[in-house]
């Protein structure tokens, strides 16, 4: 059995949801099929289309599992039938025409009937369902394209002056009534070209009076003696009004076409930017300032639910409307000062003069400050609102993606930690268990040297176990983003000595320049960073000579977020690390050349890098001249007060 395919004919009106849901109900009664919405765009209906309505229709069709298509045609009935035949449709759903009785009669005489009637006649074996439409609202008549107040005013002035000037020209020579009528008709056409229909009508009436008084016998009298002259004047007025109407319509269509061309160019730029992933929300608002000539633009969203009570809330909390919803600024460009006093169009607002609000969705609005956008530009503003909605959805998707990645990384880290606990911690635990069990054996007698060796084994395994557990816990905190450093002025010398505690003398040489400036760091975390890096160098470059030094002036060549930085270098002369594995070296559970697990679980550098980043610094690896590896720690120079740098740019974090 062939699958049902239902084609829905849409014309961009706001009641298309009724047609879409009716088609979906028809499809539900079958064994499955395909839903296809076709928006037939005509030159006469384009101006009344709303981008938000079209976007809502497209989303509804997609949510119902259908597809949305747009075609352009001069004959919507023929275009819909052609598409239905091409797609092998089994049903066509169209809406009933909203035309009045007189318009329906005229359509039957000159166009072969209404659109739905022609679809029914031409559908053949395709089932057609005509859905009654919701009656249109009478309080929102369609606006004719405006020629501008200045142009219309000039037209009225010309309608008053030009007929009189032409009549003065006629007075200079003998002329007939027909000549006077033709010359005044040319003047009426000129008035219509400049000011449109109504100035031309006024000019035609004024011209008829002048011709009647000065050119129609008896002269100097409004009475007309010859019936033919009366007919000539009547024809003159009728032709003048008709020609003026045609010229006015042509002028308005020309202006509307120029405006549509400018809108198309603007929408093309927006679409091009979106395809290149350059169409950020701030970029859209900045372009809206240029296109509409506004002083500021902002996107405002209400929080979920309603607030208790009423009244206005200012500041970071946003504005509480009279309906209880709280509105907050999501993004802005230009001058948005004073938006908290209320914005025209926002639910529950008091209104801010000189602003325009356009709904993005039920809880989000696009607001322009400094200009009230006229109705003729509302379609373009609606297109900007659609792009704003797309960018907000892109932001939400990016946030969701980052959250998913963070959760995935956390799961991977937990798996790795469990693997490390189940394998890498067994060695020190086994050593402690074996040594302690041997000492507890009463049937075995140990020499003092053997007892000391067993106790040293317990001590060594305990230290190693403490280090492994500490690194695992630190890595868990870094992965969970729960490291909160207590930043303050720290001298390098104050943290290097504790970090090297426990190492044999001579293992590391400290050659710091005198009077190195203090850096902004957490001394406990910085101690752990240096200890982990030194331990890693001792482990992988034993006996090569390890040196801790700093820049000659104690300051790094690079800056951190615009702040001068201090620099510490830990240098070894071992085998070094291949350039292709430098980035891998900072990943958790990585060991150089896949060394045995007896060297550790591979967390030392990952923990050090996480702690340095938490303190706002960087940890990088460089090749040591002559062979080896140099680890470079850069931290911002301290300003002298605890957490001053963080206080200037972000809230200071407490230690944990």
UniProtKB/TrEMBL annotation:
Name of the top EC class for this enzyme: transferase
Database matches in SMART domains = HATPase_c, HisKA
* Principal place of residence: membrane
Q: Which UniProt keywords apply?
A: ATP-binding, Kinase, Membrane, Nucleotide-binding, Phosphoprotein, Transferase, Transmembrane, Transmembrane helix, Two-component regulatory system
Checking InterPro entries in the record gives: HATPase_C_sf, HATPase_dom, His_kinase_dom, HisK_dim/P_dom, HisK_dim/P_sf, Histidine_kinase_KdpD, KdpD_sf, KdpD_TM
Q: What is its EC number?
A: 2.7.13.3
Q: How does it sit in the membrane?
A: Multi-pass membrane protein
Reactions catalysed, semicolon-separated, are: ATP + protein L-histidine = ADP + protein N-phospho-L-histidine
Mind telling me which PROSITE patterns this protein's record contains?
HIS_KIN
Please, which domain of life does this record's source organism belong to? Bacteria
Pfam families xref list: DUF4118, HATPase_c, HisKA, Usp
Histidine kinase domain: which residues? 420-639
Where found, per UniProt? Cell membrane; Membrane
Annotated transmembrane regions? 152-173, 185-210, 230-251
- What is the name listed in the Swiss-Prot or TrEMBL entry for this protein? histidine kinase
Origin species, per record, is Pseudarthrobacter humi
């Amino acid at each position: 059995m062939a699958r049902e395919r239902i084609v829905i004919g849409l014309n961009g009106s706001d009641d298309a949801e009724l047609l879409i849901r009716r088609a979906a109900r028809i499809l539900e009664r079958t064994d499955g099929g395909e839903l296809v919405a076709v928006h037939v765009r005509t030159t006469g209906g384009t101006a009344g289309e709303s981008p938000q309505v079209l976007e809502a229709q497209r989303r509804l069709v997609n949510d119902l599992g259908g597809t949305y298509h747009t075609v352009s045609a001069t004959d919507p009935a023929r275009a819909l039938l052609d598409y239905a035949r091409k797609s092998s449709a089994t049903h066509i759903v169209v809406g009933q025409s909203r035309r009045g009785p007189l318009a329906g009669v005229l359509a039957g005489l000159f166009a072969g009937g209404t659109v739905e009637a022609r679809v029914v006649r031409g559908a053949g074996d395709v089932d057609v369902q005509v859905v009654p439409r919701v009656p249109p609202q009478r309080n929102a008549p369609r606006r004719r394209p405006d020629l501008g107040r200045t142009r219309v005013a000039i037209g009225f002035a010309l309608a008053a002056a030009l007929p009189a000037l032409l009549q003065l020209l006629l007075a200079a020579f003998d002329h007939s009534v027909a000549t006077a009528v033709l010359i005044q008709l040319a003047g009426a056409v000129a008035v219509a070209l400049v000011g449109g229909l109504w100035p031309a009508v006024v000019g035609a009436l004024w011209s008829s009076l002048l011709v009647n008084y000065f050119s129609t016998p008896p002269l100097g009298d409004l009475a007309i003696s010859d019936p033919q002259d009366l007919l000539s004047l009547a024809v003159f007025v009728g032709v003048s009004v008709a020609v003026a109407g045609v010229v006015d319509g042509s002028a308005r269509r020309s202006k509307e076409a120029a405006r549509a061309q400018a809108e198309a160019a603007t929408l093309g730029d927006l679409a091009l930017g979106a395809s290149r992933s350059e169409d950020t929300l701030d970029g859209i608002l900045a372009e809206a300032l240029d296109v509409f000539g506004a002083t500021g633009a902002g996107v405002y969203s209400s929080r979920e639910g309603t607030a208790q009570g009423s009244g206005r809330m200012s500041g970071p909390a946003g504005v509480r409307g009279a309906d209880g919803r709280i509105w907050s600024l999501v993004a802005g460009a230009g001058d948005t000062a004073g938006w908290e006093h209320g914005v025209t169009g926002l639910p529950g607002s008091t209104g801010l003069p000189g602003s325009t609000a356009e709904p993005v969705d039920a809880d989000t609005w696009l607001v322009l400050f400094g200009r009230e956008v006229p109705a003729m530009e509302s379609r373009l503003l609606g297109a900007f609102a659609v792009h704003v909605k797309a960018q907000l959805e892109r932001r939400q998707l990016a946030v969701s993606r980052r959250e998913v990645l963070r959760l995935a990384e956390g799961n991977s880290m937990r798996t790795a930690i469990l693997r490390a606990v189940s394998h890498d911690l067994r060695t020190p635990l086994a050593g402690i268990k074996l040594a302690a069990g041997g000492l507890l054996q009463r049937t075995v007698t140990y020499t003092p040297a053997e007892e000391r060796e067993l106790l040293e084994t317990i001590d060594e395994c305990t230290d190693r176990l403490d280090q492994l557990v500490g690194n695992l816990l630190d890595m868990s905190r870094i992965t969970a983003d729960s490291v909160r450093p207590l930043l303050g002025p720290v001298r390098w010398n104050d943290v290097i000595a504790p970090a090297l505690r426990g190492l044999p003398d001579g293992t590391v040489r400290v050659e710091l320049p005198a009077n190195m400036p203090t850096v902004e760091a957490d001394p406990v975390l910085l101690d752990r960073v240096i200890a982990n890096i030194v331990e890693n160098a001792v482990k992988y470059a034993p006996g090569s000579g390890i040196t801790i030094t700093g820049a000659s002036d104690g300051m790094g060549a690079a800056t951190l977020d615009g702040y001068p930085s201090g620099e510490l270098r830990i240098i070894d002369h071992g085998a070094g690390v291949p350039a292709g594995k430098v980035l891998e070296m900072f990943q958790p559970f990585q060991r150089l050349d896949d060394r045995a697990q007896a060297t550790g679980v591979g967390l030392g550098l990952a923990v050090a890098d996480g702690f340095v980043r938490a303190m706002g610094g960087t940890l990088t690896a460089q090749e040591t001249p002559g062979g080896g590896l140099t680890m470079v720690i850069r931290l911002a120079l301290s300003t002298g007060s605890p957490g001053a740098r963080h206080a200037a740019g972000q809230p200071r974090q407490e230690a944990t």
